[in-house]
Amino acid sequence: MRLHVGCAMWAHASWQGRLLPGPLPPRERLRAYATWCNAVEGNTTFYATPTRATVESWAAQTDPDFRFVVKLPKSITHEHRLTGADELLRSFLEAMEPLGARTHALWVQLPGSFGPSDLGVLAAFLHRLPRSYRYAVEVRHRAFFAEERSERLLERVLASRDAEWVPFDTTTFFAGPPTSDAERDAWAKKPRVPRRSRALTGHPIVRYLGRDATERTVEGWRSWVATVAGWLREGRSPTVFIHTPDNADALTLARRFHDEVRSRVPDLEPLPEPMPNEPQTLF
Question: Residue ranges of the alpha helices (H) in 129-249?
Fold first, then answer.
């Protein structure tokens, strides 16, 4: 039984010297992060496919049980809209190979314009993908949340490939007006869709966006604590990513979420002990 938790990134300026040792060279930051959390969103791959050497460095900095949920490049999902991108996909998969089993799922985040009429394209794309990976799909078109028929059609497409539907829960964030620059920036960028909490597979993935105020973030995730605890009791292995607009405390919040679930499921394996935020010395 295992719950993976993590953040949207493994390096954040405000973490260095406060939560993580700092300053750390780029090739040591993931290693330090992995003592706090046991998973991470691979958002950087959305913007460009990394070199194989870079991915080898990610593998070298993490234990075999650490997990990445790696986003497909936008050149595949947004520019080509899943068609005519076989060579781009091949290059991406070759670059990801060094992660091995650390790749929890390949994450297909689709643009808000990708709607029910595009489901045939999604189905064809998923069925061309290699069977050696799990897949998770995030949609943002409102029809998938507002129309039962569209929701069921999408679930059918995902079930045919044993792919998960990734909810991005922003309901707590949009429950009140923004109160900081970071919240105002996120207000204009984040999707507004209803909360969805139905798992399709044994490996559900949740993205949760809270507020910069810790108490509001924690209050907003209460239903997720109950849902995730229930999934664990059912034998599922969920992954939860905690976001806030500024992400300054996302590391501690991810661990707190894990602790709250573990209080309900005592057999849950604990997270590793965090690396001290100051380098150890001999004297």
Answer: 143-146, 148-159, 181-189, 214-220, 222-233
Cβ-proximal residues to 179 (8 Å cutoff; 6+ apart), any chain? 211, 212, 213
Residue type, 65: D
CA distance 230 to 219: 18
In the chain, what is the greatest distance between 2 CA atoms, to the nearest angstrom? 67
For residue 99, report the phi and psi dihedrals to the nearest 5 degrees.
-70, -25
> Is pTM beyond 0.90 here?
yes
Upstream peptide bond of 111 is cis (omega within 30 degrees of 0)? no
- Residue 280, pLDDT above cutoff 50: no
- In which domain, by residue range, is 103 found? 38-166
Tens of pLDDT, residue by residue over 82-135, are 999 999 999 999 999 999 999 999 999 999 999 999 999 999 999 999 999 999
Q: Is the residue at 24 inside a domain?
A: no
